[in-house]
Amino acid sequence: MTKHQVYLGLGSNLGDREKIIRRAIALIHERVGDVVRQSSLIETAPWGFESDHPFMNGVILCETVCTPRQVLKATQKIERELGRKKKTTLLSHPSSLTSHLSPLTSHLYSDRPIDIDILLYDDLTVDEPDLKIPHPLMSERDFVMKPLKEIQ
Q1: ω before 113 within 30° of 0 (cis)?
Q2: Per-residue pLDDT tens for 90-139?
Q3: What do you get for the CA distance between the two ends of the chain, in Å?
Q4: In Å, what is the CA distance from 11 to each residue of 5, 29, 53?
Q5: Are strands 115-121 and 4-12 parallel, antiparallel or unpaired?
Q6: Contact 14, 112 (CB under 8 A)
Q7: Residue 50, phi-psi category: left (phi > 0), alpha (psi -120 to 50), beta (remainder)
Q8: Residues 6+ apart with CB under 8 A from 83
């Protein structure tokens, strides 16, 4: 089977952030594929919303035989298992609450124990309503780009 390279961004701003990220990485290793590189973790201010809880962020490189859709399903399940609540869509909020957000933003941001984003998958481009690769906002986020450059 062909192995694919998938870069995943991880973030946490609730609970024992480092422990949660380490657990997420272990579950990704079990369910998605070999984690072959891992950036250092950096502490950053929340992006897209205000909170008193800073984030811990990092990026991993995983070699996988999974399709992008399988990676998405696996990482969403890991998020739920580690305490992530369902993402809220913009459609359920009045436009006055969302007018300041980028049109690429698919949900309102909030505190969360874990967030796992697919950043890159080989050199593939995917543009589906719930799956966009490369991640459309990653170049705007230093907390993604700095760790990504560290391991690329």
Answers
A1: no
A2: 333 333 333 344 444 445 677 889 999 999 999 999 999 999 999 998 99
A3: 23
A4: 20, 17, 12
A5: antiparallel
A6: yes
A7: beta
A8: 14, 15, 20, 113, 114
CA distance readout (Å), 39 to 28, 34, 93, 100: 15, 15, 35, 31
Q: What is 4-72 written as a DSSP string? A: EEEEEEEEE-SSSHHHHHHHHHHHHHHHTEEEEEEPPPEEE--SSS--SS-EEEEEEEEEESS-HHHHH
Which tens digit of pLDDT belongs to each residue from 34-84? 999 999 999 999 888 888 999 999 999 999 999 999 999 999 999 999 988
**Token pair for 73:** 């399903």
DSSP reduced 3-state for 114: coil
The one-character DSSP state at 107 is B
Structure tokens at 17: 């952030």
